[in-house]
Amino acid sequence: MPKYDGRPPASQSAATPGPSAAGQVTVLGPVPEAEAAAVLRLADAAARVDGVGPFSEHVLLHLKYGGDAGARNLLLTAGGELAGYAHLDPAPSAELVVHPAHRRQGLGLRLIRELEGRTDPSAGPFRAGPLRVWAHGDLPAATGLAAAAGFERVRALWQMRRSLREPVARPQFGEGVTLRTFAGGRDADEWLRVNSRAFADHPEQGSWTREDLGLREREPWFDPDGFFLAERGGKLVGFHWTKIHPEEPLGEVYIVGIDPDERGTGLGRALTLAGLRYLRERGLPEVMLYVDESNAPAIRLYESLGFARRRTDVMFAQARKFEQTEAGVAGITPST
Ligand SMILES: CC(C)(COP(=O)(O)OP(=O)(O)OC[C@H]1O[C@@H](n2cnc3c(N)ncnc32)[C@H](O)[C@@H]1OP(=O)(O)O)[C@@H](O)C(=O)NCCC(=O)NCCS
Fold this sequence. Notes:
- By secondary structure, this protein is α+β, with helices and mostly antiparallel strands.
- It has two domains: 14-159 and 319-323, Gcn5-related N-acetyltransferase (GNAT) (Aminopeptidase), CATH 3.40.630; 166-284, Gcn5-related N-acetyltransferase (GNAT) (Aminopeptidase), CATH 3.40.630.30.
- The chain contains ten helices and 13 strands.
- It has helices spanning 33-50, 57-64, 107-116, 140-149, 185-198, 203-206, 210-217, 267-281, 296-304, 319-324, and strands spanning 14-17, 24-28, 72-78, 81-89, 93-98, 132-136, 151-163, 177-181, 227-232, 235-245, 250-258, 286-292, 308-318.
- It binds coenzyme A (COA).
- Coenzyme A binds at residues 46, 50, 54, 96-98, 103-109, 133, 135, 139-142, 144-146, 148, 316.
């Protein structure tokens, strides 16, 4: 997840009359509690109809904690109620939803046009390049809207799952590699260093800062006992951060990162197994993970460990700009 350039937050509340579809869009920097609650209710209503929630953990966290300084929140009201919402990050990337009762009235397209109008790098914290929009669940409505807006499918992220009812093999760590768990602040800098090396091709994950790490450490689910660090000679060489979703209940391979110098040594497999055994010992029946559709080595590893694809999240990008800056379009991880 990218961090921002320190410019001041968005105009606090700029109401703009819509160019086409009815409704009014209000743009906020931080989202006040009452508005955030209304957005979360809207997301729940959409999830009930779509069978999948419209937002990543990243957007949900920022709604919960008031928002990131560089993010913009677009609230679309129609008929006196919240009918749509879009979250815009400086990448620039966005996630958006229209309430099921207000669909097929042009509001989705309206939100996309509003987003496009707000990503000028000279007028805010936005990076140059095509606007990207994440759609969770690969639903026909999202594909239809993307096509109508002139966006192309540029990336996809798989959610894979496996049962934990069957035993998990014992991990085999290489000579000289030791395993321990995350010890808080004193491990932070070293973890950030290896995370950025491991995800050099996935800037949204690889550019995490202390603040991104700290946000997760403050979450009720955070448990250092499930955050494994592999070291060689006292130096961090890889990690497996697990997560537990108690309400489902479900384990997650939250992030596995291996230092590029250690790849091909079996460390990824060993670390993944160590985390899976931990989740199984905690009594969880199932485990999931997110992996980029193009990450063939990782998918092979996870398939060999019994994972199968459950769901796909798709990233669409403005087609014309995408052609111009293809090399610049990379990594974003909605699970994070
Ligand atoms: C995707 C979503 C935002 C669309 O919102 P919407 O307000 O219904 O979309 P619009 O009315 O603006 O539709 C504009 C065009 O998109 C296409 N479209 C929208 N919904 C569609 C559907 N269910 N099937 C096929 N095409 C569809 C059509 O071309 C439509 O034009 P038309 O109505 O004249 O045929 C909404 O279904 C939603 O919130 N889904 C869950 C969240 C999500 O997937 N977000 C990612 C969006 S990329």
